[in-house]
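Supplementary Text 2. Reproducibility record for the structural model of the 507-residue chain.

All settings were left at their defaults, and a single model was retained for analysis rather than an ensemble. We include the record here because the model underlies the residue-level annotations in Supplementary Table 4.
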Amino acid sequence: MNRQHRLAKAGWVIGVIGAIWLVGWSAAAWAGPIQPPAPDRAWLLDEEAGLNFRPVGIGGMGRLGTNGTSPPWNSPPQWSTYTPFSYPGNHSLYFEDGSGPGAYGPWAALTGYPQGTAGTISFWVADNNTGGKYILDATDGHRTLLYRYGAGYPENFGVYLNQTPIGALSGTSIAANSTWHHVALVWDNSLSAQKQKIYVNGNLVFTSDYTVGSVNPAYVYLGSRYSAQETWGGWIDEYALWNTPLSADQVAWLANNSIRSIAKGPQMNIPPAPTDAWFFDEGSGGAGTIVKPRWGNNPGTLYSNVGWTTDTPFVYEGNSALWFDGTTDNRVEFGQHTFGTAGSISIWAYRMPGAQYLFDSSPGARTLLYAQFSLFLNDTYLGNISNLLDDNRWTHLVITWDNSDPTAKQKIYKNGQLWATFNATLNPKTAATLWLGNRYSNNERWVGGIDEYALWDRALTPEEIAWLFQHSLHELPEPSTWALLMAGAIGLPVLGRCYRRRKGATQ
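Retained model, structure tokens:
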């Protein structure tokens, strides 16, 4: 009995010790960094080259530029390999030299995203001690900003959230020594106190207690004021937004981990080969130049002063796009095409202010997009679409239609995101001529760029459209490759059956 008693007592002690260890381990685990949910919008800034940058997923196309007129402020931000994390292909944006009050310089602008009365903004920043001012800003009237006062470090940072000034962050929180700092701005109107919090490198360094409204900025600016003045000096990387306030433990995780591991876009599927597609990679040639199709057999002819640009939505060797200067009779003209009761149009458009017809077709069979608004398909007016094309940047547009859809026969996607729907029943129409960059009467011209124009005879899926926003049509297999793949898909099983029959016959 004594032996059994001793064993029971020892077991009880071991159990108590185990329970204490488990409680302690759980407390330590819960007290440590916790992985946050995927951001609602995120930009990794990993493009490496070019003037355009995309979010993870859909929506929010970004553009680099400058309003400066003298070096070094007359060049857009540069792509840099100096980053807070190391992984293949990682990059950041570099602003070489901060510009002072009233001085124009480089900027990075991306399509805005609505911010409510609760949320989180996260980014990485490094100050190169050149007197940089604005790290972040947004469209006037919707401003969320962080900018350094005065002549530079160690001056404090002024902070606005949703057009509300909420105080000043200590300037020493972000040292001007080219060292990366993680910054998170968290807010929640429902709290009774400390409605706004700012964390630097996972540490809470600022609180305020203002009630903020909701805003819907047209653009967000990284590295400059919304007026393209008072630019940053240094690096910016991994800008992300959540519609919910993250906890201190989730912010601590962000201070030690790249959002690349949690930022998730929508499901993407590779679309089928288009029936007709034009890449416009000829890169040179004036009026009378023939642009060859990549798919289909419908070459186009350039008229008037249609030119070329290497400012394209995708960067690859030999890529170019068409550029329309608004001259009378500016257009690309294609031959006959039939639009049926189901199909898709995909096109990249760079709209300059004053641009009018992006595309049109013959009277009696008109499929057209006028300016930013009016849409016709198969000679049927569908309606006007607000804010479909952004000025001074590339926008990806996809229009799909399918008479078999009972509630939304026509769908319009902007940068991979469903933007508008209509529900008209369309009849097939054969247009004798298709036009890019002008009205069929050649008197309402497009001004800006056009690239990667493609047509399908079925409605693309949202997953295929998401792929098109993130990938160039150049990445689809060559037309001959599609044929070989299809032959392989059909031929291999047939060969396999023949082999099995032959093998059975010889046994």
